[in-house]
């Protein structure tokens, strides 16, 4: 009797849940984070974008990529829309909400400060004493530090806003990936030695995500194409081009 009731409940849930097709055409979204994913002369490019584009070429997919604020991209995907996210970080909190293809990238996340400030930190507890820590809203780093009990976080709309506030002395430190920092500084016309890492936070991997109810056959195609890229050297070529690895 219990099995029959459980089966009926599953059937009703499946009927009630809108299909992917009913939620509109598939979209590929990512945040403006050079050199990983950004727009240049009207074309979305960057390491993660080019990995995605090569996977698409191999499987015959022509879905256009879009650059949108990360908070919007993430919330759109969480709302159950038919969305692929490019290069989000995989965390325990995010894990059950998506199907994950990858890994595509491993990043080193640090706390940075202006070199002239001469801030020195040894532990997370030291970082709690800062008057404020800048970081993009809804980024994995915000969730990580919030879960760690930090009360001095200041979420902002974008990495560019975060850097501008740090340079203006609005707050003493910011959180950013080592891979993103050089391009972020270059876009602002700031010398790399202007800021320095003051505390290592974590190493974390980026993936490509699909909705949790996306067809397993489609997700498998993407994963197999990525693995093929890693075997034939095309993935390493993109790493060297964009990340100098």
Write a concise keyword list for the protein shown above.
245 residues, alpha/beta, D-Maltodextrin-Binding Protein, domain 2, eight-stranded mixed β-sheet, two-stranded antiparallel sheet, disordered N terminus
Please describe what this structure looks like.
- The protein is α/β, with parallel strands linked by helices.
- It folds into two domains: 22-106 and 206-243, Periplasmic binding protein-like II (D-Maltodextrin-Binding Protein, domain 2); 107-204, 3-Layer(aba) Sandwich (D-Maltodextrin-Binding Protein, domain 2), CATH 3.40.190.10.
- Helix content is 38%, strand content 27%.
- It contains nine helices and ten strands.
- The strands form two sheets. An eight-stranded mixed sheet has the order 4-1-5-10-6-9-7-8, with helices on both faces.
- Helix 2 (47-59) packs across helix 8 (216-232).
- The longest helix has 17 residues, at 216-232.
- The protein is globular.
- The model is unreliable at 1-18 (pLDDT under 50).
With strands numbered from the N-terminus, the spatial order across the biggest sheet is 4-1-5-10-6-9-7-8
Helix/strand-derived category reads alpha/beta
> In CATH, what is the homologous superfamily of the largest domain?
Periplasmic binding protein-like II
The major beta sheet can be summarized as: 8 strands, mixed
What is the rounded Rg?
Answer: 20 Å
CATH topology of the largest domain: D-Maltodextrin-Binding Protein, domain 2
Low-confidence stretches: 1-18
Quote the average pLDDT: 90
Number of helices: 9
CATH architecture tag of the largest domain? 3-Layer(aba) Sandwich
Number of strands: 10
What is the first-to-last residue Cα distance? 59 Å
Elements, N to C (H/E): HEEEHEHEEHEHEHEHEHH
Number of domains: 2
Specify the helix fraction band. Answer: 25-40%
Organism: Duganella sacchari
Protein name: Amino acid ABC transporter substrate-binding protein, PAAT family
InterPro entries: Solute-binding_3/MltF_N (IPR001638)
Signal peptide: 1-21
